[in-house]
Amino acid sequence: MVEMESAKSVMEPVAWIFQMLTGLVMILLVTLHFYVTHMTSHEALKYAEVVSRVAEPEFKAMYAALLLVVSFHAFNGLRAILLDTTVGMRKKGAVSALTTLAFLLAFIYGLYLLFSI
User: Fold this and answer.
1) How does pLDDT run across 49-73, given as a tens digit for each residue?
2) Of 8, 54, 82, 113, which is most buried with the most CB atoms under 10 A?
3) In terms of residue numbers, what domain contains 69?
4) In sequence order, what DSSP letters do the residues of 28-41 get, joined into one string?
5) Distance, CA of 36 to CA of 46 (rounded, Å)
6) CATH code: domain of residue 66
7) How many domains does one find in the chain?
8) How confident is the model at residue 2 (pLDDT cuts 50, 70, 90)?
9) Contact at 8 Å (CB) between 96 and 79?
10) Calpha distance 21→73 (Å, rounded)
11) Could you tell me how far CA 117 lies from the centroid of its own chain?
Protein backbone atom coordinates (compact mmCIF):
# COMPACT_ATOMS: atom_id res chain seq x y z
CA MET A 1 0.00 0.00 0.00
CA VAL A 2 1.26 3.49 -0.86
CA GLU A 3 1.53 5.89 2.05
CA MET A 4 -0.06 9.28 1.35
CA GLU A 5 2.18 12.33 1.62
CA SER A 6 1.54 16.05 1.47
CA ALA A 7 1.94 17.92 -1.82
CA LYS A 8 5.16 19.54 -0.59
CA SER A 9 6.77 16.18 0.16
CA VAL A 10 5.46 14.53 -3.03
CA MET A 11 6.73 17.27 -5.31
CA GLU A 12 10.44 17.35 -5.83
CA PRO A 13 12.03 20.40 -4.19
CA VAL A 14 12.68 22.06 -7.56
CA ALA A 15 9.08 21.54 -8.71
CA TRP A 16 7.80 22.94 -5.42
CA ILE A 17 10.08 26.00 -5.67
CA PHE A 18 8.93 26.61 -9.26
CA GLN A 19 5.31 26.31 -8.11
CA MET A 20 5.89 29.05 -5.53
CA LEU A 21 7.88 31.27 -7.91
CA THR A 22 5.35 30.98 -10.72
CA GLY A 23 2.62 31.88 -8.25
CA LEU A 24 4.46 35.08 -7.35
CA VAL A 25 5.19 35.92 -10.99
CA MET A 26 1.51 35.32 -11.83
CA ILE A 27 0.49 37.85 -9.20
CA LEU A 28 2.75 40.45 -10.82
CA LEU A 29 1.73 39.69 -14.41
CA VAL A 30 -2.01 39.48 -13.68
CA THR A 31 -1.81 42.76 -11.77
CA LEU A 32 -0.03 44.34 -14.75
CA HIS A 33 -2.65 42.86 -17.09
CA PHE A 34 -5.54 44.26 -15.03
CA TYR A 35 -3.86 47.65 -14.77
CA VAL A 36 -3.21 47.90 -18.51
CA THR A 37 -6.61 46.60 -19.61
CA HIS A 38 -8.90 48.14 -16.99
CA MET A 39 -7.21 51.09 -15.31
CA THR A 40 -5.61 53.01 -18.17
CA SER A 41 -8.89 53.71 -19.97
CA HIS A 42 -12.42 53.90 -18.62
CA GLU A 43 -14.24 53.77 -21.93
CA ALA A 44 -15.53 50.56 -23.46
CA LEU A 45 -12.94 48.77 -25.55
CA LYS A 46 -13.60 47.95 -29.16
CA TYR A 47 -12.40 44.74 -30.80
CA ALA A 48 -10.12 46.62 -33.23
CA GLU A 49 -8.44 48.47 -30.34
CA VAL A 50 -7.78 45.24 -28.46
CA VAL A 51 -6.35 43.52 -31.55
CA SER A 52 -4.08 46.47 -32.34
CA ARG A 53 -2.83 46.58 -28.75
CA VAL A 54 -2.17 42.83 -28.62
CA ALA A 55 -0.30 43.11 -31.94
CA GLU A 56 2.38 45.26 -30.26
CA PRO A 57 5.58 43.33 -29.42
CA GLU A 58 5.61 44.42 -25.76
CA PHE A 59 2.13 43.06 -25.19
CA LYS A 60 2.89 39.83 -27.03
CA ALA A 61 5.95 39.35 -24.81
CA MET A 62 3.95 40.03 -21.64
CA TYR A 63 1.13 37.69 -22.66
CA ALA A 64 3.58 34.99 -23.76
CA ALA A 65 5.25 35.21 -20.34
CA LEU A 66 1.85 35.09 -18.62
CA LEU A 67 0.85 32.09 -20.75
CA LEU A 68 4.09 30.28 -19.86
CA VAL A 69 3.80 30.96 -16.13
CA VAL A 70 0.09 30.13 -15.87
CA SER A 71 0.42 26.96 -17.97
CA PHE A 72 3.38 25.69 -15.98
CA HIS A 73 1.76 26.54 -12.65
CA ALA A 74 -1.52 24.85 -13.60
CA PHE A 75 -0.05 21.61 -14.91
CA ASN A 76 2.61 21.39 -12.20
CA GLY A 77 -0.18 21.81 -9.64
CA LEU A 78 -2.28 19.16 -11.40
CA ARG A 79 0.73 16.85 -11.29
CA ALA A 80 1.04 17.39 -7.52
CA ILE A 81 -2.67 16.68 -7.03
CA LEU A 82 -2.47 13.48 -9.08
CA LEU A 83 0.65 12.37 -7.19
CA ASP A 84 -1.31 12.77 -3.95
CA THR A 85 -3.49 9.85 -5.01
CA THR A 86 -2.59 6.19 -4.62
CA VAL A 87 -2.82 5.53 -8.37
CA GLY A 88 -0.77 8.65 -9.13
CA MET A 89 2.07 7.56 -6.85
CA ARG A 90 2.19 4.12 -8.48
CA LYS A 91 2.30 5.68 -11.95
CA LYS A 92 4.54 8.66 -11.13
CA GLY A 93 6.40 8.53 -14.45
CA ALA A 94 3.20 8.41 -16.49
CA VAL A 95 1.66 11.26 -14.47
CA SER A 96 4.76 13.40 -14.98
CA ALA A 97 4.92 12.61 -18.70
CA LEU A 98 1.22 13.31 -19.31
CA THR A 99 1.16 16.58 -17.38
CA THR A 100 4.35 17.73 -19.12
CA LEU A 101 2.84 16.87 -22.50
CA ALA A 102 -0.39 18.69 -21.61
CA PHE A 103 1.63 21.74 -20.49
CA LEU A 104 3.61 21.80 -23.73
CA LEU A 105 0.51 21.39 -25.89
CA ALA A 106 -1.37 24.14 -24.05
CA PHE A 107 1.62 26.50 -24.18
CA ILE A 108 2.36 25.90 -27.86
CA TYR A 109 -1.31 26.24 -28.82
CA GLY A 110 -1.55 29.45 -26.79
CA LEU A 111 1.55 30.85 -28.50
CA TYR A 112 0.10 29.92 -31.88
CA LEU A 113 -3.11 31.81 -31.06
CA LEU A 114 -1.22 34.78 -29.61
CA PHE A 115 1.13 35.18 -32.56
CA SER A 116 -1.55 34.56 -35.19
CA ILE A 117 -3.10 37.95 -34.32
Assistant:
1) 888 888 999 999 999 999 999 999 9
2) 82
3) 7-115
4) HHHHHHHIIIIIS-
5) 15
6) 1.20.1300.10
7) 1
8) low
9) yes
10) 9
11) 21
Rounded distance between C-alpha atoms, residue 15 and residue 22, angstroms = 10
77 inside domain: yes
Identify whether 37 is part of a domain: yes
The phi, psi pair for 94, rounded to 5°, reads -65, -40
CB 65 within 8 A of CB 29: yes
Considering only CA atoms, which of 85, 96, 82 is closest in space to residue 3?
A: 85
Q: Does the pLDDT at position 7 exceed 80?
A: no
Proportion of the chain above pLDDT 90, given as a percent: 62
Does 57 fall in a domain? yes
Q: Distance between CA atoms of 117 and 109, rounded to whole angstroms?
A: 13
